[in-house]
Amino acid sequence: MSTGRVQQWVRKFKDGRTNMHDDHSGRPSVMNDNLVEKLNNKINENQRFTVSELWACFPLISHTLQYEIVVERLQYHEICARWVPTVLPDEQKRAARDIILNVPSAIQQQSAEIPGSQCDW
């Protein structure tokens, strides 16, 4: 701890301060509702983006902060190279489940139509 910091605390306690903890710690956050809304609008334009592409649109905002906004604040998660909301309505969950369950049978059917293919599903 620096001498300057100790001297600053001594002055503050002489002036009547009773709390030992600093009023703030770390850098102030640049995350605000306006920034979150801008990122969300950009994501909705193209959900097949990467954080690097998003950073190209907002170069003054760090990759880490953009990722934090996308994943923690907007609650998007990457699924098959596409960012989608974490919470899906029940209808969309059922539709996704039906598609996933039909993929193996669709592959088997298509491979049976190709001469010489021996796909064992």
Q: How would you characterize the overall build of this protein?
A:
- This protein is mainly alpha-helical and 121 residues long.
- The chain has two domains: 60 residues; 34 residues, no CATH class.
- 55% of the residues lie in helices and 7% in strands.
- It contains five helices and two strands.
- Strands 1-2 form a two-stranded antiparallel sheet.
- β1 and β2 form a beta hairpin.
- It is elongated, with a radius of gyration of 26 Å.
- It starts with a helix and ends in an 8-residue tail after the last helix.
- The model has no long low-confidence stretch (mean pLDDT 75).
Helix content: 55-70%
Total DSSP E strands? 2
> What topology, given as strand order, has the largest sheet?
1-2
Summing up helix and strand content along with how strands pair, one would put the structural category as: mainly alpha
Largest sheet: 2 strands, antiparallel
Number of distinct helices: 5
What keyword list fits this structure?
single chain; 121 residues; mainly alpha; 2 domains; two-stranded antiparallel ribbon; 2 strands; elongated
